[in-house]
Amino acid sequence: MAENGGGRKPLMSGNWKMNHNHLEAIQVVQKLAIRLDDRVLDAVDVSVHPPFTGLRSIQTLIEADKLRLALGAQNCHWEDSGAYTGEVSPTMLAKLSVTYVVVGHSERRQHFDETDEMVNKKVRAVLATGMTPIMCVGETMEEREAGDAQDKVQGQVRAGLEGVSDEQVGAMVIAYEPVWAIGTGETATADDAQEMCEAIRVLVAETNGDDAAEALRIQYGGSVKPDNTAELMDQPDIDGALVGGGSLDPDDFSKIVRCQAPSD
Ligand code: PGA
Asked: In CATH, what number is assigned to the domain containing residue 127?
């Protein structure tokens, strides 16, 4: 079993992006549930993040079959309600027993112009409803090549956590996802991923104290696959993964999850 530094329970999250209609989503979750037994789920938290249209179906399935999987969303607005056509509020998600909400994914920053300020509003709104944000940060290839990766990521972390209490920060999840590794088949080396996740934890210790930094779970994301998970998860500051393409197929995703569980 991959041991992480602070005894934090790993969180493996499947971010399906704009894939799987609600019927497909039900099938994937049923297959996933069969492949993950109690022994695995004692060691690892697992969340699935279908598109909004799948949330209600998966909530019902999880409750009816008493599945030990957490429901996650991929985004939300920061207001409770109002004239925001096409948006979904944190309180609506909480009502569907959503546990985790991905906030500030690089695809939203890139294609929908989400700013650090918007990400921070979403983080605070998600926390206010009692759900857990998975706040995504990461640098582009140009920023990495220019030697600016740590500055960029630490800036995103600082801005995203503005006004969040130390206790709340400790209960959060931050996903380090280098933009160049998302959906490209390119993965950060385990050493590079560890270095950045450690830098995030060191920053959080400075801004929110040692307790928050020790409790905070930091995921790695970006082309996580069954054959590269174990090495990444072995790193002391990596507490799980945010998995896109590799989470769409229940066979692959269950293999990825099992990398974090005790071996047979
Ligand atoms: P990927 O996506 O695993 O397909 O690279 C990760 C993510 O965007 O969260």
From this structure: 3.20.20.70
